Amino acid sequence: MMQDCLKKGALTSEDEIVIKGTAGTLYAAGTDTTLTSIMVFILAMVQPPDIFQKAQEEVIQVVGETRLPEFNDRTSLPYLENIITEVYRWYPAVPIGVPHLASDDDVYRGYYIPKGSMTIQHMGNVP
Ligand code: HEM
């Protein structure tokens, strides 16, 4: 598709580099992290079977057995949500609390964050 677009002049060679870089980044960022998290989830679920049973019961109660879960169901599945958070805590695929540097002065929920401050994101369920 990109070669067709390049031939038609719809993309510049710079666009081509950006598209390839973006696709590569998504692939690299998404594969090992997802695979590791799914494996840790399975490892957790085969250990104490009552935890898996509780999660399964919640899914059946909320989603039923005739369709797959959707993102909209997520807030109605607190037990499963907490299992997923525990997966990230137990064996994180990558360090989760990555520090960031504020590139400008900012205000967040009434807190003044001066330019140059280090902030660390909270990954839990903050209301
Ligand atoms: C369980 C799976 C995953 C975990 C644990 C994970 C973890 C992380 C973490 C900790 C960061 C750094 C966030 C920060 O700057 O504070 C990050 C960034 C990023 N992740 Fe993931 N990730 C996962 C899945 C994915 C998937 C599936 C994709 C793409 C399809 C993806 C794409 C990215 C990208 C592009 C960034 C950089 C975002 C930016 O520009 O700041 N990740 N991820």
UniProtKB/TrEMBL annotation:
It comes from Rhodofomes roseus. This is Cytochrome P450. InterPro entries: Cyt_P450, Cyt_P450_E_grp-I, Cyt_P450_sf, Cytochrome_P450_fung. Pathway: Secondary metabolite biosynthesis. Belongs to the cytochrome P450 family. It holds the Pfam family p450. Its cofactor is heme. Keywords: Heme, Iron, Membrane, Metal-binding, Monooxygenase, Oxidoreductase, Transmembrane, Transmembrane helix. It is found in: Membrane. It is a single-pass membrane protein.
